[in-house]
Structure prediction request, 356 residues.
Amino acid sequence: MRFNHKKPLMALVMLIAALSLAVFVSACGGGSSSSSSESSEAEAPATEEGETGEETAEEEPAEGEESTGEAEAITANPENEKVSLTIGSKNFPEQEILGEIYTQALQAAGYKAKSDLSLGSETVALKTLKAGKVSGYPEYASTALTAFFGLEPEEVPSGATEAWEKANAEFEKEGLEAFEPTPFASANAVGLLKTTAEKYHLKTISDLEGVSETLSIYGSPECEERIDCLAGLEKLYGLKFKEFKPVDIELRYTVLEKGQADLSILFTTDPQLAAESEKFVILEDDKHVFPAGNVIFVTQKKVAEEAGPDYEKTILNVQHGLTLEVMQELDARVELERETPAAAATAYLESAGYIE
Prediction:
């Protein structure tokens, strides 16, 4: 099934309606959430006729996803014009979209902000931040805790707030600061064609035991050494594969479609998983080797202090609408519809009412 290019607009349109309701409630004296862990009235859909006011299971945030708070239109502050910021990101679509969202939002707040969307791996990104070449960049909390601070995947807290607090405590020791997390969480996943899963009767990663030796697996170049990737599959699941081959992230589905790989490391936020569910499936991570990661914006403390309160406020503000569904749809604009990250970011900010 081809992805419907109109679908990305739907979540954004729904978000506008929710935000409009939130503004009305706020104007009438309704309280807003000051914590990402608190539930937002703005996102609770109206119940159908005959139902009670209790939320259904579909209305609860997805696993690893925190409830969002209210959002507000960004207003330029003349005081921010004297502050120059460079917002970085790692060099794959989802990160580039986030980098553009933050950059454009900060520009709307009056900052002289520009983007650098080519930082490479998380190791390079952190090194670039510490060197002062970028002001901040989006990182996944689980990646920070495992790659930077030595936690095993199973030690990463399942709650977004707890994971952020743990990561931030470590970042602070290095003169850095992590802002509160996004509502959506992203995790690595072992993906394959549905026909391959049916052939070998695979539903969980553990089902690969006794089969993996005959299968090839592809992943990003750094996957081989990451505990939440190939290294974790080998160490924690005890799996051995016929072959591991590094491949550019953008080709992670192509290698499956062309039969070059039996398995490929995908992301749970990939739009293809929803758009082409009859073709691609992911195996359940039954040992929780791939921890879900909400995005936290990491910056230097001195940058945050010099930039003033609008810096953090703007970042957190534009994160309110970034649910898993919205992030999948923004990813779809870039990866499936070939929009630029900048265009997708602008569409999100405008549709949600952050900028005009």
